[in-house]
């Protein structure tokens, strides 16, 4: 384990010292208890002489072994090397082990003597031949080693999996085995559930660990086993307080306790340590501490990651709420609400605005209908590039710039040119499309320009058509090229005519093309008109365009969508 913390906070050093004093105090108590209950010298009792018995036979010794065993004799080749081993005898445990593994009658009974490798050829490919040869050559016990092989029986092959030992016994071999799968399964189970256990003797720091103890703690196979103080010295400072409390509860309060332990020697892995007292006798002092260590590093990392994600999600939610609140305020400030304010000009207006859900409730679409000092109306609809607050900021700049420019009384061609200069001056990313129009009520004339935007649609007697392109064609989008000129188109309106201006987010589908999007819009408009013609008044016009947006809207919409409707109601 790592050396005790050489430097650091004073609290860490004091906590480590407290753990050391707690363990040393308990060691003194256990030692005093042992001294108090030590018995005197045993009394020598002279037993009556008994007849001397003969030493046990080899078979009696074999039968007394607590594990299955075979007595073998080496069979050497002409060159003196081991060629086989002759089976001479076995003990009852070996016979019982064979009976439990092989179906009755599946293998013939052993008849001694018999050659081991001739009877079981599968053993030749295991470690047993080498272990026998090494035991004979070196004269030292061999093993335990894992031996796995197959025995063919009439009911199918049987897999054997044992821990085997070989030792010389005079001129013979003693081959013993234990079923090794239990030990390996225990070790595998520890690795699968990332668990190990140990029992620490509080009188001498002795430790009886599980098989996977070193591996679980990240120690080398030949590393010394850590005492409880070594464990504390290898812990991170934040683990010392809870470790002390756990040791105190187990040693002095004599109850089960648990804590989380982070060890520097294991790459800062986190263990859940559950410990219980082991007493000398019921009600007496604690002489040992038994603990299970469960590696919870993965669970801890997942929990910490989940907490970080939850915190970040909470922050994002708060941020989204703040953006949405700003967006709501901007929308209320920027987008007008029509009622009957355009009636004196012989027009009714209604609008539907559907922001992209990704844009926090507001986007780059905007529209405007405003009376001018000369008695005419400024009508416009635009779409600023992007989403969210950046788009709405550009939208607000263009909308308010247009409102100010319109008071000059200049034609819409020049207003559009000037607005393009504003967008170009704002930056390379400040592009937008727009329809900018002026309505002349005395002539029932709509004069409009197009800056890269879908052209308006005229609905007359239930038939929808897209307005013709200005003579010089639609102009470039705003913010693309300074000094761009724009041409206006004139559209006379009859009583009952409806002009629809919309952003491409209402019709655009990917993949698609603009002509197909326009046809979809025209068809949807005529179907809505056939189902129910727009009713009288502002409410009737609003109902009509809301039904139209509902028909066009759907899961494939990926942008802000705005629809502005103007209906001529008279002079």
Q: Describe it for me?
A:
The chain is an alpha+beta fold and 571 residues long. Helices cover 36% and strands 28% of the residues. The protein is built from 14 helices and 21 strands. The strands form four sheets. It has a six-stranded antiparallel beta sheet with strand order 3-2-1-6-5-4. A hairpin with a 4-residue loop joins strand 15 (432-440) and strand 16. Helix 1 packs parallel to helix 9 (237-251) and helix 10 (297-334) packs parallel to helix 11. The longest helix has 38 residues, at 297-334. It is elongated. The mean pLDDT is 85.
Describe how the helices and strands are arranged:
Elements: H1 10-36, H2 58-64, E1 69-76, E2 82-90, H3 92-101, E3 114-115, H4 116-119, H5 128-138, E4 142-153, E5 156-169, E6 172-179, H6 181-192, E7 195-201, E8 207-209, H7 213-217, H8 228-233, H9 237-251, E9 257-263, E10 269-279, E11 286-295, H10 297-334, E12 347-354, E13 363-371, E14 377-387, H11 388-406, H12 412-426, E15 432-440, E16 445-451, E17 457-460, E18 463-466, E19 488-492, E20 498-502, H13 514-531, H14 537-552, E21 561-568
Antiparallel strand pairs: 1-2, 1-6, 2-3, 4-5, 5-6, 7-8, 7-11, 9-10, 10-11, 12-21, 13-14, 14-15, 15-16, 16-19, 17-18, 17-20, 20-21
Helix pairs in contact: 1-9, 10-11, 11-12, 13-14
